[in-house]
Amino acid sequence: GRGSAAPPPRPISLVFSPHGISYAHLAPWASGHLVAEAALPLTALLHGRALEAHALWSAMAKPDPAGQAPQARWLTFQNFGGEPELTFSASPVSAAETLAHVVSACGGASRVGFEAAHVTVLEHERQRSAFGAGVSLVPRVGVVESGRRSKDDHEIALIERACSIADAALAEVAPMLADPPPGLTEAEVRNRLEMRMRELGASGPSYETIVATGPVNAALPHHRPTATVIERGHTVVIDVGALVDGYHSDMTRTFVVGEPSTRQREWYELVLAAQLAGLAAVRPGVTGAELDAACREVIAAAGMADLFVHGTGHGVGLLIHEDPYANRVSDAVLQVGDVVTVEPGVYRGDFGGIRIEDLVVVTSDGCRVLTTSPKDSPCPPSPPTT
Length: 386
Ligand code: ZN
Ligand code: ZN
Fold this sequence. Notes:
Elements: H1 23-26, E1 34-37, E2 55-56, E3 71-72, E4 75-78, E5 85-88, E6 93-94, H2 95-105, E7 111-115, H3 121-131, E8 136-140, H4 143-148, H5 153-173, H6 186-199, E9 204-205, E10 210-213, H7 214-217, E11 235-240, E12 242-244, E13 247-248, E14 251-256, H8 262-281, H9 288-301, E15 313-315, E16 322-326, E17 339-342, E18 345-348, E19 352-355, E20 358-363, E21 366-369
Parallel strand pairs: 7-8
Antiparallel strand pairs: 1-7, 2-4, 3-6, 4-5, 9-12, 10-11, 11-14, 12-13, 15-16, 17-20, 18-19, 20-21
This protein binds zinc ion (2 copies).
């Protein structure tokens, strides 16, 4: 049997981005649903670099809609300084049983955290029975989300590639808006953009591409493309991103079909000024609310505050919307490695809409803009020269 002096329980770690391992490598697993803790604060469990033993929970733990017990494997990181050696459990078993096994194999824990925003009631019951009465299950919120926030160089490179694919697709498709063929619809522009992104190496669009035109559709920030025909004199809002190795990009450009009216030009210049003010405000230490205010003040100064009907931005990574958010109430403090959008807009039902959105990475002295499509004018670009 066991000796009387049992070793103290060791902490069990969720590993997000330790040295030598990027989120991309972990992408299939990095949206873990459970965190085990040996009666320690959870913050001690998030950073793998200095730790020696690691267990990573599996995103395969996501319950399927049929209510079947999720399957999972667990893995251990060894040789932490170099290329990780991943040891998988021999065969998948239920996620709850797997975690209980991992916790036990690592010395046991009296409290196990679970992500309250993601675990279903049914899965929670399974966890209760797998761990037994000796372990208390503690609800936690935002553990994985906060661990994912700051991106490493490899992640930023993937996001940058996703941005450049969307940039290239837009550069090829947008010129047709200068003189649209008769009957060209929002949906057709979306189809062309999404096909080009796949051809350029994306695994797909980052989200359903928004193509919104005319006084009604373009006034809706999240309009889904329809058979509406793109007409001269209208604005066209195109919100497009690519997906590369699980990482998203996000960008919006607005064009005017034909010669812009005075009002279209003025509103475009206003949104652009607000967007540039937002970009200039991005740096470590600024809160999401301060970034939002930097854009909003420019639009408010023109007497159009009520036309900017959404927040200024959001984080982008393995999810298209993740921490940190930039809106009126966000107290998130920007930090180096955050990848966030800056996307002010104005919308009015008899006019349409204008939004300009870039994706940036926060650097030590400001930010670097990852999306490079031209935005100085609402006129569609000329075709790229090859
Ligand atoms: Zn967007
Ligand atoms: Zn966005």
